[in-house]
Design brief:
mainly alpha; 9 helices; 3 strands
């Protein structure tokens, strides 16, 4: 019994030390997150549509979209998740999408990216191209944020998806490394809930939500 406690203590110490390294690495990138992901997001390219379930295309600005009688559906360029199916899913799963994606990550933890992608397509409903963006992002998160994740298991904070200046969670780590850092999730996906101004299960400040979206009723 004493041996088991000793092994557990070593495990906890190793996870805590490794999580501290990942937290510090994330903290060094927070300014880049704010600059790359959020500064000026209400200016520049937008993804817009002419009619609900109609044509979706990219414009250089919201003004250009409005001149063409298109409505802005999200900040930033259109990409693989800027389809009606995927954008409607962003809204309908807004309260539990992060948890659903996390379940697919856990379910396929020992497998490859193809199995994870298939889970995201089947269990959530993403289109193939959008699911690939999510799968690559989850794999990126595993590479950079695994010990923060394991620490959250030990402290019963696994479901904490909050984003704030003072809290480093798996979500914050993902943004730092897989969106503003080595990954390219938003470039791959195009749409996400922040860019669509959808209030989700991840608590965020207003400054991280796109403020020029014309759609408020899905």
């Amino acid at each position: 019994m004493v041996h088991h406690h000793y092994v557990l203590a070593i495990y906890v110490a190793l996870v805590s030390c490794a999580a501290t390294v990942q937290i510090r690495s994330t903290e060094t990138k927070l300014d880049a997150v704010r600059t790359i992901l959020y500064a000026g997001q209400n200016e520049g390219p937008v993804c817009a549509f002419d009619n609900k379930c109609g044509d979706i295309r990219e414009f250089d600005s919201k003004e250009d979209a409005h001149l063409a009688k298109y409505e802005v559906v999200h900040c930033g360029p259109c990409a693989n998740c800027s389809t009606w199916n995927d954008m409607e899913l962003q809204y309908s799963t807004r309260k539990n999408l992060a948890a659903k994606a996390q379940k697919c990550g856990i379910k396929t933890m020992g497998g490859g990216i193809d199995g994870l992608q298939k889970c995201l397509e089947t269990d959530i409903g993403w289109t193939e191209e959008c699911a690939r963006c999510w799968a690559e992002d989850i794999f990126c998160t595993k590479n950079f944020c695994t010990f923060i994740y394991l620490q959250s298991l030990m402290t019963n904070q696994l479901g904490n998806f909050k984003v704030s200046p003072d809290a480093i969670t798996s979500t914050t780590c993902e943004e730092a490394h897989c969106e503003a850092g080595d990954g390219y999730f938003v470039q791959c996906s195009g749409s996400n809930r922040r860019r669509m101004n959808i209030v989700s299960g991840i608590a965020r400040p207003d400054t991280e939500q796109c403020q020029i979206v014309d759609v408020d009723d899905w």
